[in-house]
Amino acid sequence: MKIEIVTIGDELLIGQVVDTNSAWMGQKLNEAGFEVSRINSVSDTEDEILNILTETSSRADVVLITGGLGPTKDDITKVTMCKFFNTELVFSEEVFEDVKSLLKRYVPNINELNRAQALVPANCTVIRNPVGTAPVMWFDHEGTIFVSMPGVPSEMKHTMEYNIIPRLLERFKIGSIVHKTVLVHNIPEAVLAEMLEDFEETIPEYIKLAYLPAPGRIRLRFTGRGSDKAMLESKIEELVLGLQPIIGDNILAYDDVSTTEVIAKLFTDNKLTLASAESCTGGNIAHMITSLSGSSVYFRGSVVAYHNEVKQQVLGVKEEDLLENGAVSQPVVEQMAEGAKKIMGTDYAVSTSGIAGPDGGTDEKPVGTVWIAVSGPNKTVSQKFQFGNIRERNIIRSSEMAMVMLKNMVDKDLR
């Protein structure tokens, strides 16, 4: 079966609002065993909505729609659907009671716009919305199911989890979908594909391998589809084991996790502490770490030493090394890591110093030159990288590589 998602709203098309609904819906549908074949976004115009309804009805079994169901005049989805399904709006006392119940704490008098939320197409199945004023509308139309939901994420998520997905599971018999992700670092996508060329010839047709690249890392995702879930899991595990002789230490994790999550588990499980000293990454490493709940267990803090005076006065970097070698150099970045570890009293510290760009580079040190250091209980190691000339990418890749170097040191220390 094929499921398509349709999101409605000019705010999505002009970039004012990021469409997080589709990503969340796709994830939850996949977990339930369904496959999303297409995601569509259209503007708040009658023609565009009618066109996408016509298109999806010809190729999808289920069309899940979010947006355009508010109380204001620019929300036209409900009226447009009446045209498409050749029906009219009728007043639902049940929906009106829900609206009044939800608004009674905030709105003393129900106005006509609020009352209009209780108007629903006559030929739809109304699914009541306990967390919002707009009801969910389910249509069975010429072999295709259309479900129109509010665009508010909390309302959409509630109805998807408690109503829509359970109803779809009752209606359709689906097979199993099994995913397994392997996190690979520091190998370009084209190089990795060449390394795995012979390996991919051994993958059976019912299992697909996808490359999902991001700065500094690639997720290899195996997806198996079939009726025998246990068989799929067994075959995928067999394939995953076959990657180790090919990729080796460039495998960072055997799960769909971020590099930060790998570090969090490593440090938490082993009761280790961490600090960072950042120049070119500007606090991004600290941001990545603290974006995860519970990071205070192992992360003490960070010094964003953007100016050389901060490197000297706070981290203890020697003035002569700054003058002789410059801020982007091995002795400076190593002293930054050692200084952060000392002043924060941690087991480990990471540091970065580089030229993120787009300007500031020289012939000797072009844009994208980055030194990264890791200091641990026994030693300090550092490495020079050349990442490129795109500032945002350089910051991300520097942060990712700092995490990888940190993991490698801790792994060796724990052996």
Short description:
40% of the residues lie in helices and 25% in strands. The chain has 415 residues and is of the alpha/beta class.
- Any idea what the shape is? elongated
Alpha-carbon Rg, integer:
27 Å
Widest beta sheet: strand line-up: 2-1-3-8-7-6
The name CATH uses for the topology of the largest domain is Molybdenum Cofactor Biosythetic Enzyme, Chain A
Number of helices, counting only DSSP H or I runs of 4 residues or more: 17
Count the E strands: 17
Report on the biggest sheet. 6 strands, mixed
Beta-strand content estimate: 15-25%
- Which stretches of 5+ consecutive residues score pLDDT under 50? none
Q: Kindly state the percentage of residues in helix.
A: 40-55%
Mean of all residue-level pLDDT scores: 94
CATH superfamily of the largest domain: MoaB/Mog-like domain
CATH architectural group of the largest domain: 3-Layer(aba) Sandwich
State the separation between the terminal residues, measured CA to CA.
49 Å
Under the CATH scheme, which class of the largest domain?
Alpha Beta
Tally of domains: 3
Broad structural category: alpha/beta
Family: Belongs to the CinA family.
Pfam family, one: CinA_KH
Protein name: CinA-like protein
InterPro entries: CinA (IPR050101), CinA-like_C (IPR036653), CinA_C (IPR008136), CinA_KH (IPR041424), Competence-induced_CinA (IPR008135), MoaB/Mog-like_dom_sf (IPR036425), MoaB/Mog_dom (IPR001453)
